[in-house]
Amino acid sequence: MPTGTASRTAAVVPRRLSFQFSADGEYAACVLAGASARPLVEAWSLAGPRARSRLMPVDGVPVDGTQLVPCADGRVLALLNGHAGHRLNVLSPHGSRPVGELPGEALRGLPSRDPEVLAWLLSCEDGERTTLFAVEPTGLACREVAGFAGRVAGPVWWDAAGCSLTATVVNAGGRRVVRVDAPSGNARVDRWPVVPLAVSPHGTVLGTATGPRGTVVGWFDPGGTSLRCPPGLNGLAGCLRPLAFDPTGTRLALRVTEGARSRLLIGEAGSDDLREVTLPPGVIRAAGWGRRGLHLVFTTPADPATVATVDGEGRLAPLSPRVGAGPTAALKSFPGPAGPIEAVCYGDHRTARTVVLALHGGPEGAWEFAWEPVLRACADAGIAVVAPNQRGSIGYGPAHRHAADGAWGGPDLEDVLHLGRAIAGERDGRPAALLGTSYGAFLALLAAAAEPGGWTRCAALAPFLSAERLHADANEQVRAMIDRLKGRTAITDALGTRDLDILAARVEVPVFCAHGGHDEVIPAAHSRRIVERLLGSGRLRPADVRYREPAGAGHDPLDGPGGAALTAELVAFLDGSA
């Protein structure tokens, strides 16, 4: 690789992950990965004329599963996942103070509106019973407040005083709305005729219901009996998600996801009054609404996620300076076997020396028009990138999203193979390289096995052998996802069972495989077995198969220790220069 290319590839831009806002929208916190050898916690103060951030001292912040709860006094409660439970630490500029540990397979932190409560915790045992805890602001004791049957699904909402919690709960009886009065500890089940999307501090509900013409969105007054469905809310293209209410509880910010991009709408609670805020093409990650305005966590392909503010005129305050010129990204549509496939693209795949077909994780995932370090690293090295949202990706409607349910490695693999042939056809027969992460790594290796001569090489980050084998080895959350999406359903076609323990022997192109040693989503043993099968097939030389297992890394090995060097090695492999 030329010297200039290598230096650009090695440059590291920190990633901000797991953003959360305080209940009043005046503070925020996130995990900062890539800024040092270990991830850090970054706390934001949004009360002044300009957003300010500072690093909080804490040891051993894992990227995977860490939750941060910004508190109304500027402190941050960190929930750090461990093998035996969850460690709790309260972070401040003066240091890190341990709170203790809570058992349970699912623990969730909630910002507090109540000045007598630093933060709230929802702990679920065996998916059957949830307990609400309050963390006291001075002694930091965790006090049990209430318990109820089932597990909380989706967001929760507090009343204006921060004492009454509303949540959707799933149990054997289906979905129900639970109302918890924190002072008394009483919990009751409400049988609303809607599934709530958001509940204002004053009790007005934005929800969905199923009618003769399908699912509708509207406003519901718990004291009434019917759902009012304004046309403006039901004529939207894309997926609607509430973000935050303003401090008065009368205006609501909503995100509309259309494919790989986001739109921002602001509406009056209970009405059809909607206006759109013009944003650059990009993605809204989260939002909080404070006294100075609506704060967005916003990212574009040229801007890592950062906090930007919508002013009183509905304009987005300037983002932080861009990290460099570099190649620009564009959204392109490719013909697919079952309809158009949108892709995030860098460079010209028809003329570039090297082109990479990049496959996202999931399967319920998608590439977004956002900052993606591994795609940027490829583009900075002069590699053209086509990152498609094939069937199974979210953001393109129910039919597209559920096309691969019960058919992992079926319609989605068909789309990948179709795109690979189309790209090669536009390059005078020169094939693309494959790059995949997680489920996308599984899909990339399947593609390399299905058409051994259709690619130049294949890079797989945290792949698994098969849905069946992953179900046997994974944690409860992963097993539940596999069951929900019917991932273990067998496909009967010429390729046969989608099991890389069998199909890896068909791969004929060089393979680069990396897996975090602390991956709690997909055990690293899956990658080790894949490498063993590749080397034992007789089709590849030992020099054609590389395996890296960074000991301190989690599910994304590029985010762990040594991530910059691993990214540089990955890019050089894809480019064929190393």
TrEMBL record:
Pfam families found in the cross-reference section: Peptidase_S9
Keyword Mitochondrion among record annotations: no
One GO MF term: serine-type endopeptidase activity
GO annotation, biological process: proteolysis
Protein origin, superkingdom: Bacteria
Family annotation (InterPro entries): AB_hydrolase_fold, Peptidase_S9_cat
Domain Peptidase S9 prolyl oligopeptidase catalytic: 367-573
Entry keyword set: Hydrolase
Protein name: Alpha-beta hydrolase superfamily lysophospholipase
